[in-house]
């Protein structure tokens, strides 16, 4: 499975690699509508052009309101107390996504939520190339009983993962991307073209201005669960909440 965060403050996006490759994203939200609901958890797994892991970033977010369907994402209201707001992590997210193909399972949904969150703070996202593992699985994973993430992961024999946690979904989606792109039926143009297009796009940047009155570091709250063999939800290990580190603000 993919390794943990790159060296540095645990969980902090201090990546030193050239911004080119893939950004595998997953968001958990307070509801289904990007226009009416908010992102409550976000994760990004970075892969280079050869699909090698470069690093990862994940945190819960304060949605400034109810967290929504706890029975789905298992995030409680108390879990987001002290979590950063989207605008506090937006500069780092822009740096992580710049120059990369945006990948997700049903990626148009994740993209729509991110696009609306950035729009709320007045930052338009460029027309970033998208690569959807759901679409790839339809074409290159015929043994899947359906095309939801869990069914595709099971068909590809990728093991148990903590479903409906942003980092768990993003990690296993990165593994599914590798599986599909390695299939003999997958032509290189399916992904080399988007890579070239992504590398040419200009991206907005935001200054890492001090966003909390005290100037203190912004804490990252990450849900984590270890990987293991494929297990039904009733037997899955507990997902725990940890403070993964902090992002230092800059004057």
Secondary structure blueprint with pairings:
Layout: E1 21-29, E2 39-47, E3 53-60, H1 70-73, H2 86-97, E4 100-104, H3 107-120, E5 130-132, H4 133-140, H5 149-155, H6 166-181, H7 189-200, E6 218-224, E7 240-247
Parallel strand pairs: 1-4, 4-5
Antiparallel strand pairs: 1-2, 2-3, 6-7
Can you characterise this structure?
By secondary structure, this protein is an alpha/beta fold. 29% of the residues lie in helices and 20% in strands. The protein has seven helices and seven strands; from the N terminus they run E-E-E-H-H-E-H-E-H-H-H-H-E-E. The strands form two sheets. A five-stranded mixed sheet has the order 3-2-1-4-5, with helices on both faces. Helix 4 (133-140) runs parallel beside helix 6.
Rg from C-alpha positions?
A: 17 Å
Q: Describe the sheet with the most strands.
A: 5 strands, mixed
Q: Give the % helix.
A: 25-40%
Give start-end ranges of low-pLDDT stretches: 1-17, 227-239
Order of helices and strands: EEEHHEHEHHHHEE
Annotation, overall tally of beta strands = 7
Query: What separation lies between the terminal Cα atoms?
Result: 38 Å
Q: Give the neighbour order of strands across the main sheet.
A: 3-2-1-4-5
In brief:
This protein is of the alpha/beta class and 251 residues long. It has helices spanning 70-73, 86-97, 107-120, 133-140, 149-155, 166-181, 189-200, and strands at 21-29, 39-47, 53-60, 100-104, 130-132, 218-224, 240-247.
């Amino acid at each position: 499975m993919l390794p943990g965060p790159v060296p540095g403050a645990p969980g902090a996006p201090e990546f030193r690699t050239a911004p080119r490759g893939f950004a595998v994203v997953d968001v958990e939200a307070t509801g289904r509508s990007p226009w009416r609901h908010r992102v409550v958890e976000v994760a990004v797994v970075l892969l280079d052009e050869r699909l090698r892991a470069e690093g990862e970033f994940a945190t819960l977010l304060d949605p400034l309101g109810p967290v929504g369907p706890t029975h789905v994402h298992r995030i409680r209201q108390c879990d987001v107390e002290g979590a950063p707001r989207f605008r506090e992590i937006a500069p780092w997210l822009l740096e992580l996504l710049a120059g990369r193909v945006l990948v997700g399972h049903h990626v148009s949904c994740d993209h729509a939520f991110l696009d609306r969150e950035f729009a709320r703070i007045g930052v338009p996202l460029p027309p970033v190339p998208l690569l959807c593992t759901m679409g790839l699985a339809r074409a290159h994973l015929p043994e899947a009983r359906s095309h939801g993430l869990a069914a595709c992961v099971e068909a590809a024999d990728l093991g148990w993962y903590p479903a409906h946690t942003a980092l768990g979904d993003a990690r296993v989606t990165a593994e599914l991307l590798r599986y599909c792109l390695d299939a003999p039926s997958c032509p290189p143009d399916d992904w080399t073209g988007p890579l070239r297009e992504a590398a040419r796009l200009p991206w907005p940047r935001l200054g890492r201005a001090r966003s909390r009155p005290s100037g203190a570091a912004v804490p990252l709250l990450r849900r984590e669960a270890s990987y293991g063999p494929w297990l039904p939800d009733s037997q899955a290990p507990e997902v725990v909440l940890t403070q993964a580190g902090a992002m230092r603000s800059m004057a």
